[in-house]
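Give me the fold.
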Amino acid sequence: MVTNSNSFCIVDNLIDLNNLKTMKKILFFALAAFAFASCSDTNEDPIPQQPTETVDFEAAQLGTAGFLWAKALSTEQDDVDGKGQPIKSNIFYGSLYTEKQAQVYSYFTDYGHTVDVWNGFVISNHIDRKTAGYENDKSVYAEGGANGSKQFAVGYYGSWTPENKGIPVIHFASAVTPQSIAVANATYAYLYFSGIEGQISSLTLTITGYNGTTKTGDVSTILAETKNIQEGWKALDLSALGKVTSIAFSMTCADGYAPTYFCIDNLTYKK
């Protein structure tokens, strides 16, 4: 039997060629599967990001007085004085102003038509930086609202009020995640601390988050310390508060005569 060595080479070459074709097919399908998977990943709908909402108080109708407070919303109610004697007294507690999800609360009484007292919040555009004292209790120590706006909220912390209704609070229609807020000194507080000689106690503003009745966190900032008194606006990061249904504002100072006033603007949050 005569064997042709060239026949073996042809057969070997055919086998190699077939293997090469098979490998190419495997590689083709592998690359196609990878490309399909990559396209599927990139074409997936991204997780929607919740937009950031901003409460800037610009929509509040302030009227010619330049401020909105609870007295304008209060109604005549029966009340009693400190001795239990019946009197007429305007008392208001509730939502002073609503913007988007936020409801800004305020407390007002005139103590039987004797003296007007408010706590919580008022909405204002007052920028008197020269007049000292309680009669200038609705001005910010700045040129206007934050970022060049016209209006802002002034807070007055009064924990001595009935049922703590004088604590400034903002409620939300549904749970939100606060992002930031701009804070400033009220003129009343700024000029008070400017006039004190020597060492003074720190005036500290604390913002506390609540989800229902559960405390979620605190964010604090010093508005005045010795002669370091904040001028103008500064932004605070509120992300440490987490998910909240309300935020409350409190002030601490060892000086019992210190006016516990402050200003806020541009509250941002995500739903």
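Confidence is low (pLDDT under 50) at residues 1-15, 31-42.
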